[in-house]
Every structure is written in C-alpha cells, then in structure tokens.
Amino acid sequence: MSVPAQLGTVPYPAPPPAWLEDDSVSDPVEIGGYRILERIGVGGMGAVYAALTATGERVAVKVVHQEFATNPTYRARFVREVDLLARVGDSFSVHPIEADIGAYQPWLAMPYIAGPTLGEHIVGEGPMAGRELVEFTAGIAQALVAIHRAGVVHRDLKPDNVILSSSGPRILDFGIAQAMDEPQPEGEEVLGSPGWISPEQFHEHPPRAAADVFAWGGLVAYASTGRRPFGTGSVETVAMRALQGRADLRGMPHGLLPLVEAALAPDPARRPCSEKLLREVGRLAAAGHC
Prior knowledge:
It comes from Nocardiopsis ansamitocini. ATP binds at residue 62. InterPro entries: Kinase-like_dom_sf, Prot_kinase_dom, Protein_kinase_ATP_BS, Ser/Thr_kinase_AS. The protein is an alpha+beta fold. It contains 7 helices and 10 strands. Mean pLDDT is 87; it is low at 1-20.
C-alpha cells in the first residue's frame, strides 16, 4: 500500500508568500471599505484580518494573496468557498456578509467570531472533560449535520479550523470544501492536513460526508486526550497509521470510545452518519455515560 508523497495543505496547496514573513512589508489599511485592524490568520491562499465597518462593527475579512489572484484555479476555489459558506448559513459556521470575487484581489467579509481555536485551547488549558467535552462533541456533530444537510462536505476539519465561541464551536475555513454532487476532478491531488484526511482519499475516492465523520472522530479524540490521534511524523507515516486504523485513543472516556472508534474506521461504509453521531452523543449525555 503506497501513500502519495505530495499532499496539499490547507487552506490551499501553496505555502504562505514570503512577504508575510517580512516585517518591513505593511498589511493593507483598507479592504473593500473595511478598515483593517490586524492580521489574525494566514494560509497558503489568503490572509484573514480583523476589520471594522463604517459603523464600527468588527468583522473578519479574508483576502487572496496578490500572487495567486490571477490564477484561475485559486480564483475558482475562492468563488466556491463563498458559495458554500452561503449554503451552510451562520448557525455553526460564518456566513458571508459581503464579497467581491471579481476584485483584483478577491475578498470575503464575515462576522468576527471571538474565542480560541480548539488547538489553542488544548495547548493552553489541556484536554477537555465532563460537560465541556460533551458540549463540544455534540456541537461539532450538530455542525456536521447542518453542513451535510446543505449538501456540503467540509474536507478540512482540524483543530485550527474550529473556534470555541461563547455560543458553541464554529467551523471555519471552507477553502477546500465541495458540494456533495460535485464531481471529483481526475488526478486532483489529495487536499487536506495529514492526520485528519480520511483514508479513502488516498485511494482516490472522492471525499463524501463520511470524510467529515472521520475528522470528527479525530477532533473528539484530540479534545479528550490532548494528543493527535495518529501522532506526528512524516506525511507518509501519519497517513499510513490512518490507513491502517491505528489511532491512539488511550485515555478517552469509555462512553465515547466506541463511537469514536466507529468514526475512525478506515472503511467509510462502516462509519456512522453525522445524524447518528448527534443522536448517540445525546443519548450518552442523557445517561451520564460521557
């Protein structure tokens, strides 16, 4: 069994441009009429800024890096991201407030969501337990139900793409999401982050809802143990562990363990759907077994 040597990394398969590491280069002062306050995130495709509207409301603005703005592939992905965010709505993600996909550097304005990412929380506070873990586990399952009912596959659930807001977890970054009825381009590289990519994608199977369920299992394992379920190491090493179903689930609550094991099954046909995840987590919580 072989594993592709080259994997795309989210949000797009390109490293952040060199100018982002150059302190002598200033961030923009304004994008689309929004006054920029600070840079709050960066990926291969674009940067995200905290900004203010004309009335003083805080928003987040994502803008495509200048060197990719003329690339048709990146532009198409950005257009798709805006469309899919609009489909999902704002209950469990962030809806588009305004976007200019025809701008020289396309941009997207979204509500500003305060709170740490799951990764930041685990590093700073340690693993979750008790009610906090139950609410997180149920919240992510509920978010997946909403995303999948909208006909969307996120494809990139990982700790850095989950914000722990005051109203519950929010899923961010639909940069490589796709519609469920969208055909998979032949020869497309495997997109996603090693350790969170579902095994079937290494066999050139198009990602479907079961791919997000796999990532849900990984997120719950990480939240409850503080460890990445497939460890660290080279891309090939981490991917092989996922392909072989060798997740490190030591220390997980006994009530959640069977559900997480099922979600992390290498065979997508054996994984529960997101609706079943939500029902089972609710049942465990009601019985006090989480």
